Amino acid sequence: MQHGSMTLSKKLTNSSIPWFSIGITAIFLFSIAVRFWGLSRFNSLVFDEVYYAKFANNYLTGTQFFNAHPPLSQYIIAIGIWIGSHLPFGQDTVNGLTGSMRSTWSYRWLNALTGSFIPLVIAAVAYQLTRRRRFAFIAALFAAVDGLFLVESRYALNNVYLVILGLLGQLYFLLALNHQARGRWFRVGLAGVFFGASAAIKWNGLWFLLGAYLVWGAALVLQWFRKDGAAQAKSFWSQPLRNPLQNLTQLNVWQVFLSLGIIPVLTYSLLWIPHLLMNPTPGFWQAQQEILAFHEKIGSGRDVHPYCSTWYSWLVMWRPVAYFYQTARTPTEQVPAYPPLPAGAGKVIYDVHAMGNPILWWLSTAAIFLLLLLLVLRFMGKAGWQAPPTPSTWIALYLVLNYTANLLPWVRVTRCTFLYHYMGASVFAGLALAWFVDRWLDSEKPQYRSAGITVISLVLLAFIFWLPLYLGLPLSVEGYQARMWFRSWI
Fold first, then answer.
1. Of 37, 163, 257, 442, which one's alpha carbon is 20 to 30 angstroms from that of 146?
2. 257 shares a domain with 368
3. Does residue 293 sit in the same domain as residue 336?
4. Tell me, what's the pLDDT at 238?
5. Does 270 share its domain with 350?
6. Mean pLDDT of successive 10-residue segments in the chain (490 residues)?
7. 278 plus 303 within the same structural domain
8. Residue 153 C-alpha from the chain's centroid
9. pLDDT of residue 244
10. Helices 423-441, 159-177: crossing angle, 10 deg rounding
11. Which domain holds residue 455?
């Protein structure tokens, strides 16, 4: 009997049950649930919906306008509005704030659906890096319980489109490295399309493409520094493939130039055509100049916007953004109410705070800097630049360089910036934390396994605790203050 139990246990551990598929499906369904639950609440335009929902509706009504960003996200939201306006559900809250009578659900649902897929794309990137399902699952879980991604997914904003398109570019870049000939050309070309589309959301979508260039460039530098030149390279590359990044130097200059140079530019340019047909002036080049001039004229500091934040403050989430705030006397009162109650009169607070999961955020920042430190120590060691990189070194390089590419360009930006500009970099910091947790769980030392379980538990508990601020649920004054740990958060 005991032998039978052991046999059954062994079969279960050998994946007779598709635990990974079940787990990823559960994460996706969870993401769908928290993004769509109460999506029509706050029958108004929240934060930058005053721009993007209006601009999207302008495409449907043929109204000319100027936009300070490329047009792709507004196309997508417009498609969502058109589909949502023809559905027999989601029509319970309607307003005319976009310029037409539209339901709030119609201009938000496609964002919610798109945001629900981001954890899956992150899982795919993680799996391509390591072929480790647990790493992919943990990475997806962390992405699903990040508050900033949740908030951005629930409103007609554009950052979830920038991130998912940039990540799809990264995913197909990794997939291309595992293929040869036509298979590689097709996938790296598709990566270029996604990179160009990400830039057509906002120009900072190009940082994902910059990350791919940095990783490729790092591989060339490492190959050049290695001892014994081509002979050692041949010996190393002939090892069984454990990481697609080991194939980086097989990308030739023409593949990079065409697929990661010409194709992104063509994609970006072609995506302007529908906008230019409806808004012939300014033309394409003049529109680029006016977008640049618009952002150069924006100042910085509290005088420009109360929630401006500097790039280095994002690492510790020093200044989140309140997207919606209003008070009521009771949880049953309709919100938003006009005019709002006088300050101090309300006993119930409705606040949508664009902030990350604090525990996840702080630990992820620590993880990415720990990876950076380990890389520095590795290249300063005895073997230095001449030793062939291990798969772990490749993963660390990939995460650190992509994190750097999505963060450091903001150092030179002088206009008012916000916490959501960190979303691209935060993906790679979250992947770094997931990688450490996966390795801890795989350790033979119980203290490491305990550390991994503790990190996951704290991240999940933090998500539950701050969930009312992500969803805009009614809070007492005391409950609200308990979640505002720092004055800079308010």
1. 442
2. no
3. no
4. 37
5. no
6. 45 67 96 96 94 97 93 97 93 94 96 98 96 96 98 97 98 91 89 98 97 93 65 37 77 91 97 96 94 90 89 96 93 84 84 97 98 90 70 92 97 93 97 97 93 97 98 95 96
7. no
8. 10
9. 83
10. 50
11. 299-490
Same domain, 333 and 468: yes
Residues 193 and 325 in one domain: no
Q: How far apart are CA 225 and CA 189, in angstroms?
A: 29
How high is the pLDDT of residue 382?
A: 62
Q: Give the chain's domain count.
A: 2
Task: Please name every residue paired with 353 in a beta bridge, in sequence order, or none if there are none.
Answer: 322
